[in-house]
Amino acid sequence: MFDFIFYRLLQLIGDAEIEESPVFCPSHPVEEKESEEVKHIDFDLSETEQVQEAVSCLPTWSEREVNCLNPSFHRWTIMDYARAYHSKKTTPLTVAERFVAAVSESSKPPFNMSFFINYDVEDIMKQAAESTKRYELGRPLSVLDGVPIAVKDEIDCLPYPTTGGTSWLHKLRPCTGDASCVKYLRLCGALIVGKTNMHELGIGTSGINPHHGSTRNPYNSSRICGGSSSGSAAVVAAGLCPAALGVDGGGSVRIPASLCGVVGLKPTFGRVPHSGVLPLNWTVGMVGILAGTIEDAFIVYAAISSKLPSHQNTALPKLCFPLLNSSRPISSITLAKYGEWFNDCSDDIRVCCSNALDKLQKHHGWKSVEVTIPEIEVMRLAHYSTIASECSTSLSSYLEKLDSSQLGWDARVALAVYGSFSSKEYIKAQKISTLNIPSYIQILDLFKDNILHLVVGAALALKSMVL
Q1: Residue of 106, 228, 306, 392 marked active site
Q2: Domain boundary among 325, 342, 361
Q3: Active-site annotation holds for 405
Q4: Which residues touch 295 (CB under 8 Å, ≥6 apart)?
Q5: Which of 289, 307, 325 is the last residue of a domain?
Q6: Which of 139, 182, 270, 450 falls 20 to 30 Å from 191 in CA-CA distance?
Q7: Model-wide pTM > 0.85
Q8: Which domain range does residue 214 map to?
Q9: How many domains does the chain fold into?
């Protein structure tokens, strides 16, 4: 597999003559377009105020009854927790106690789910007690107060070490404080419940980990969750947390989200601060969100989105929140379908996606139009070259001090391939990015003008593997 990718890269990138100058950070036009379907958020709002603005954009559904004592499975949303706390049907302390018991049970035979690399019962209960006290005083910080949120072990979060899914990285790179995104969640009162499992160093998409156990899929424990944010997707799918943080460079949030049946969001480059995150691929790796619903992903996005870009060379427009309470009819949605890409998957997945598309068109009146995305294969390989080169460079000082036996076999193979890319190939990959900016802007304009709304296609080309 790696040999084939490397050969294709040499074919399409190594020998290419490209006149354009390289662009080393994602480039997107800064434009604040007025729309009746979005709300522009001022730069001077606090994290809790941004969360409140997000809540004001949600539909005002009548409160559904949540039975806290019913043993049947129910995946709670952030608003379910907030309403239950306000109405005194339960408390953050009670939720924390049940969470700890559930995680402990899931870690033992016959389950062996391997959701977490680290969780600290004392720290969880301390946070829960403080949150419970705030509710007793009638002063919760936000709707996130007391809501359990998990964090991928690629993101700094005290009191835990940041292992990156390894057995050694935390010894060479101690965690000295919270990442910015974690700080923002704490300011909103979120109950940080531990560090989730991940594919070693984030350089695989299965979630199989030789050091901390392979995270099992809650829907079928004999299958993988996908990766690299495997544990974050699994805890959400299992109903342990309504949301979790992941990191996504080439699908590491979106792949496990797909295999676990949850929402996966990779935000725009620069929108969520990257400080305190392992710098494995700094121009394409973004802190992302896994959540049980779009609304929950939206609320967490509002909490962690920064007013300042995470990269000094990036200019960002104001935060733009979708009005999910809009009265716009759902039948007005137009999907873009690139046939060559849509069909590039196994037959059973292609048939499943085609059936889903047919249902959306027949039952909801959605439209589908054929489009072409130029040079998508070249862009994919250039993206791979970028990830590989940046990961190899960022880890080089650590790997020099490391016995390779401390790495899993797939990490060893991947890093050997990553280290074989030359500076010429990296530069040419960035030139390809420049070359495709006009096509990107052209497609973006179609979305801005509401001609198109979504590009449709399979999230994955193959089904979940058996462990």
Answers
A1: 228
A2: 325
A3: no
A4: 58, 77, 78, 79, 324
A5: 325
A6: 270
A7: yes
A8: 38-325
A9: 2
